[in-house]
Every structure is written in C-alpha cells, then in structure tokens.
Specification:
Blueprint lengths: L8 H5 L2 H51 L11 H72 L7 H99 L12 E10 L6 E11 L4 E8 L5 E2 L3 E10 L10 E6 L7 E4 L3 H10 L21 H17 L13 H11 L18 H13 L11 H9 L3 H12 L4 H19 L1 H4 L3 H12 L7 H5 L1 H13 L1 H6 L36 E4 L41 E3 L2 E4 L16 H8 L6 H7 L2 E5 L6 E7 L3 E4 L18 E3 L4
Antiparallel strand pairs: 1-2, 1-7, 2-3, 3-4, 3-5, 5-6, 6-7, 8-10, 8-11, 9-10, 11-12, 12-13, 13-14
Helix pairs in contact: 2-3, 2-4, 3-4, 4-13, 6-8, 6-11, 7-8, 8-13, 9-10, 9-15, 11-15, 13-15
C-alpha cells in the first residue's frame, strides 16, 4: 500500500496518526532526495566516462589515420591501395561517431543533470525549509500551551485573558503553517513523478538518437565494408600464391646458392676480410669489408661493415685493379688469402681473405687471378613446345574440362596427384599415344588431374606463353593508370605476341572466361582464376623476390584478359595507340568514399592534349630521334613525379590524353630547357606540303563544353598554333575565355 493522504482537517487535530503519516511522507521525500543525488553523481560519472571513451576513440582514430602500410616493389594493386586507404576510412568513421557522442554528452548535461539539480534544489529544498518551520512552530506552540496551562488561576482576569489571546493567535499561526506544509508535502509527492522521469526520458531520447545515427553511419559504411572485404580476399588469395612462390625460390637458393645469383652490373661481390697493417709492435688486424668488382672498368670498391655494432658502415674505398695473386699458406698464416694491387699504389699489395676455398676461387676467376675456375651451368630443356601436339593437348584438356567439370568447386585450384599428372602428360606429349587418350569419356582421368596436367604443360614451355620479352611491358599497365588505359595497353601488347603464342592464349582465355561464368557453382571468379594462371602464363626470366612481388600484377593482367577477351582477341588495337611514352604519372591513390572538404573546389581541366600523334622521322626537322621520344609502355605506370623527358607538356596522363590544368598551357613551350626546345618545335612544326596529311596529323585540344555536354575542340594550326572551334566561357579567374576562331600561338592566347 502507498502513502496515506494527508487530510487538512487532521492538521487541527494533530493526532499521533497524523504525525505518523507526515513522517512517512517526509521519509519518502528523503529517499527521493538520496536517489536524485546518486543519480546525479552517476550521471556526471557517465559524462566523464563518455568523454574519456571519446578521447580514447579519437586517439585510436588518429593512430589509424597516421599509419600507412609500406609495400614491397614499385607499385601497389588497386586492392592494396584500397586496403591502405581503409585505415583512413576507419578513422573518419570513428571521428564521425565521436562527434555524435560529444553531442550526446552535452545533451546529458542539459537534459538530465541540470533539470534534476534544479528539482532537487528548488522543490525538495523548499520542502526541507518548510519542514524546519513546521518543526519550529510545533515546538513553540506546545511549549506555549504548557506554559499557559501552568498559569495560576489566582492571576488577574485581564492577565489570564491576555494569555488566552496569545495562545489562540499562536495556535492559528501553527494551524496555517501546518496546512501549508501538508499541502506542500502532497504537492511534491505528485510533482516528483514527472519532474524526475521527464529528464530521464530526454536522456534516453538522446541516447536513442545517438544509436540511430550510429546505425545510419554503419548503413552508409556497409557498401564500403563489402567492397573492402572483396579487396582483402583478393589480396589474401594473391598472398597465398606469392608465398608459395617465395618459399619455392628460397628452397632453390638454399640447395644451390651459386646458380641463383642475381644478375647485376657487378662481376663479383661479397664480403672479404682485408688485412690492415699497423706499426711493428701492434702487428696487423683483419677488418670485414663488402667488396664489389666490375671487370669492364677493373674498378674494385670496398666498404667496411660490422654487423655486431648495429650495422655500422664505414667510408667507401675505390681503386683500379692491376693484378690479383693467390697467397699460399707458406707465406701467410691464414687460409683462403689472395693479394690485390691498385694502379695508384704499385708495389703495395692489399691482402684479402675469402670465407672458403670455393669463395676464393670465384674471386680469383672474377679478378683474372692466376687460378681461374670454370663454373658449369646446367641447362634443362623441356620437351613441351608450342607445336601441333601442344595445341592438341590444350584443346583436349579444355574440351574435357568444359564437358565434365565446368561446375566443379575449386576448378584449377584443386591439385591432382603428381604421379597421375606426370603419367597423363607423358601420354599426351607422345605423338604416338596423344590421339588415343580419351579425356571426355574416360573415368580413369579425374578433372583435377586434367587441369593440373594442362597447367604443368604451360609451365613447362621453354618460354612463358606471354614471353620473357614482353613480361615487363605487360606488368607496367597493371601498376597504374585508369581501367580503360590498362585494357588498351594489354590489348596493344597481346597483338605484339608471336602468332602461335597469341593463338594459344586466345584459346585458353576464352576457356577461362567460360569458367568464370559458372563462378556461382565452381567458385572460380575472375580474381581466383587470375591467382591460378598469373604465374602460369607469365613469369620473369630471372627469379628474384622482387619479381615474385610482381605476381599480384601478373594476376591483374590475366584478369584483364579474361574480362575483356572479346575486345582483345577479336578486334585490332587502336592504330594510333602510342608506343607508350615514359612520362611519369602517379597512380590513382584516392580511396573510395573520400569526400573533399566543404568549400574545396575541384580543379576543372582546362585542356586535353591528344598524345596519339605519331610522326615519321622524315616529318621531324633536324632534331635527333632521341630528342623526340615516342616513348615506351612505362608511361602507363611510372610513378616518378618527374617527367622522363622535358619536352612533354605538363599535366596528368589520363588514358591516351594528357589533361592540362589552367596555367600549364601558357608555360608549356616557354618554360622548356633550351636543349629541349628544338625537339618540341620540330614535333609541332608539321610540313605543309600535304595539307590533308598535315591536318590529320595536327594535335587537337579538347575543352569541356557546358552548353552541350560535349568537348570543345581547338584545332591545331602549324607552327605551334591552335584555332578554337567552339567558344569557351571561363568559370574561374585562372581559366581562359575565347570565341570561335581564336588563335593560340606558342601557348599564348
């Protein structure tokens, strides 16, 4: 049962039961006061904890934003770039979330803490003051009453009457105060129900708003999260392939280090101990140096290096070698020694010690010492060739796979038993038994055995299907550039392959495209097929860790082939596609969902220069070929911020065009170094003997046309001139306005 109501009539009786009910109301208010006090304390602790959490989250976000993954090699895949940018995205997500949390912390103060403090101070505090007055008047009233009752009846009548009047007035005042106090008690009991709960409701409303905004942020983030998961999975798949290749290379080098030495411009390099002679009492010391030697120039360099002192490097010493002589143990109390003599110090030999006798022999041979050792290199030849049997093998395997196992999960990833694979290959590669092998109807050969045999055959070719010569050029576009420029570059390079290689590649890629169409069943997406066939179709001539780091880009090239096989193999590449120039451009590193800061204006490209212009040597005036380079495929992926040749116009390469910002046009020719200007002039100065040919060869400048949504063309006139075909109205002070027919000469308007 709840509190009993306080009747106003009971104020006049002031019975013990009335007093008991008043004390019950007072106890309830005291309990409410303690509750609000604890709630305020907990609320302030909650705000402090929220601020601490927000600070920790922000610090965590700053740590995510400030870290950047380093990559091995000279470029990243798109997946790796997005993974790298993901930390910044995570940081932005937390930052946005913490902004909402700060709003929540402020709202808790305004909607919960302050209203409860105000209620406790103004309402409960007022009741406490009323209670003090009530208790004081109670004490005064009953003290006066007792004193009055103790008056002697013998007092004068007038004195007794005055005493009666005084008691009566005091009793009325007590009753009035009692009525007000009872009214206040009951009022506060009813008021607390909404005065206390309403701030709590407001607090929860703010909390729900925070959670809802978090949900909205998470919903907006979901698309990016799904894309990132794909990026991560693709990178993990490539990592698995790369790791196996690295381990295989490591094991090869472990078995025979000398056969896998990296090819470089040094004839010999490695550590040697060099004898440093001291004055007679101190004898001599031996200091470890890293030494290099180039036979063409006979230059020998050595750098002191001590691993145990934290890798301290000393000063390099360089000299020209005149001769090398072996030291026998009867002339020195150390093994594996030989002497060198420098041209600038005749008669003063330098004694060096190798790590072993074999190491000394290698140094002696490289240095043309008296004892030279011949190193035998074993070359293994494989019988796999791109001949009639080779095409038959591939076609038979593809037909069997598409007939029997196109929907098998993990097709081409599940490996067959090695002995069975070798047996099938031996039968297929034998002209006598090849036609007798029935792969489509025979249950003797599992699909995984057939796919493994096909991959093994392709890997056994003396040269990869996409050739050693074009390996580097295929890798370049995969490292940078727009998707369209990558496809164009690969398209162009495929048609540079030998005819048999191109024919075999077309057969294989068409099959892989068919496999990818059944990815819902076989789980072999284009990315998964790229992981499997990247190392199969492409491999560098020299096996190094740096080359293995490019495996992921080999995979991308195979993905491009599969996704665009119809265009690449069924159509000829653009005849105007340049031998890609070696202009340096940076890859598009911008992560998805990156929004620019408010108020930041996107720079609108002012002009686009078509770089597909190709001139014959006869069309070029007086300048040598190397001064007007047509370029190489490196233009698609080079990441150096400095152009490879100074005669190229400034700007940003986009596919086959160079996008120039405002201000670049005017300074293009005038800012060139003196030695580069003749080649630029000759490139722009096109003979006018054949006007039709001249107009066809002239470069065209493109300007966005806001009125039509198309590009405005500016036709080039001879001698570094351009004529406007459409009018252009500037949208910014740094941009140009011109009318139809306006002439641009030497980069000026």
């Amino acid at each position: 049962m709840g509190l009993q109501p306080l009747e106003f009539s009971d104020c006049y009786l002031d019975s013990p039961w009335f007093r008991e009910r008043v004390r019950a109301h007072e106890a309830e208010l005291e309990k409410t006061n303690k509750f609000i006090k604890e709630l305020l304390k907990d609320g302030k602790n909650l705000i402090a904890a929220t601020k601490n959490l927000s600070a920790a989250q922000r610090k965590f976000a700053h740590s995510l934003r400030d870290f950047k993954f380093e990559f091995i090699g000279d470029a990243e895949t798109d997946d790796e770039r997005y993974i790298d940018a993901s930390l910044h995205e995570f940081s932005n997500f937390l930052k946005n979330l913490e902004e909402q949390r700060e709003i929540l912390a402020l709202s808790v103060t305004e909607t919960l803490i302050k209203p409860l403090e105000r209620f406790r101070k103004e309402q409960l505090g007022a009741v406490k003051e009323e209670k003090k007055k009530f208790d004081k008047e109670t004490e005064k009233n009953y003290s006066l009453l007792e004193k009055h009752l103790n008056l002697s009846a013998k007092k004068k009548e007038i004195q007794l009457q005055e005493a009666d009047n005084q008691v009566e007035q005091n009793r009325k005042h007590f009753y009035e105060l009692s009525l007000e106090y009872v009214c206040k008690l009951q009022e506060i009991q009813e008021r607390k129900k909404f005065e206390c709960v309403e701030p709590v409701l407001s607090f929860f409303q703010g909390l729900f708003t925070f959670y809802h905004q978090g949900y909205e942020l998470a919903k907006d983030f979901n698309h990016y999260k799904m894309a990132l998961q794909i990026n991560i999975q693709n990178t993990r798949n490539r990592f698995e392939g790369t790791r196996s290749e690295v381990e295989e290379l490591m094991n090869k080098i472990r078995r025979n280090p000398q056969e896998h030495k990296r090819a470089n411009h040094f004839t010999m390099e490695g550590y040697l101990y060099v004898q440093e002679k001291r004055p007679a009492p101190f004898g001599s010391s031996w200091v470890k140096h890293y030494c290099t030697y180039r036979k063409e120039t006979k230059k020998f360099s050595m750098i002191p290096f001590e691993h145990r002192s934290g890798g301290k490097v000393g000063d390099e010493e360089l000299f020209v070698l005149t001769y090398c002589t072996k030291r026998n143990t009867d002339t020195i109390d150390r093994r594996f020694c030989f002497d060198l003599e420098a041209s600038d110090r005749p008669g003063v030999p330098v004694t060096m010690q190798a790590f072993s006798e074999e190491d000394r022999k290698l140094w002696m041979e490289a240095l043309d010492g008296k004892e030279a050792v011949s190193i035998i290199f074993y070359v293994f030849f494989c019988s796999a060739q791109l001949d009639k049997i080779g095409f038959t093998i591939i076609k038979k395997c593809i037909s069997a796979v598409e007939t029997r196992g196109i929907n098998d999960q993990g097709l081409y990833r599940v490996v067959g038993v090695s002995s069975k694979v070798q047996r099938l290959l031996s039968l297929l590669m034998d002209s006598k038994t090849c036609n007798e092998v029935d792969l489509e109807n025979s249950v003797d050969w599992e699909v995984k055995t057939i796919t493994s045999a096909m991959k093994q055959y392709l890997r056994s070719l003396p040269e990869p299907l996409m050739t050693y010569e074009l390996h580097g050029e295929f890798i370049v576009p995969a490292k940078s550039g727009s998707p369209e420029s990558r496809v164009n570059a690969v398209h162009f390079l495929v048609h540079k392959l030998p005819e048999k290689n191109k024919e075999m590649l077309e057969i294989l890629v068409k099959h892989l495209a068919n496999v990818s169409k059944h990815a819902k069943r076989n789980l072999m997406t284009v990315a998964n097929l790229g992981v499997v066939f990247g190392p199969t179709l492409m491999r560098p001539q020299e096996e190094t860790v740096a080359a293995i780091m490019d495996l992921k880009f080999q995979n991308i090239v195979v993905e491009i082939l599969i996704e665009n096989h119809e265009k690449i193999f069924k159509t000829l590449p653009d005849a105007t596609f340049p031998e890609p120039i070696s202009m340096s451009v940076s890859p598009p590193n911008a992560p998805p969902r990156q929004s620019r800061r408010q108020g930041q204006r996107i720079k609108r490209p002012l002009a686009v220069y078509n770089l597909c212009l190709e001139l014959d040597d006869a069309d070029s005036h007086s300048s040598p070929r190397e001064d007007t380079p047509t370029g190489s495929m490196d233009s698609l992926s080079s990441q150096s911020p400095t152009p490879a040749f100074s005669s190229s116009p400034p700007g940003l390469l986009d596919g086959d065009h160079l996008i120039m910002d405002s201000g670049d046009l005017a300074g293009w020719t005038t800012n060139l170094p003196a030695q580069s200007r003749p080649s630029m002039v000759s490139w722009m100065n096109i003979p006018s003997a054949n006007p039709a040919a001249t107009n066809a060869a002239l470069p065209t400048f493109f300007f966005p046309n806001p009125a039509t949504g198309t590009d405005r063309a500016v036709e080039s006139v001879a001698h570094r001139k351009a004529r406007a075909v459409y009018p252009c109205e500037a949208e910014h002070s740094s941009e140009l306005s011109f009318q139809i027919g306006a002439i641009f000469e030497d980069g000026k308007y």
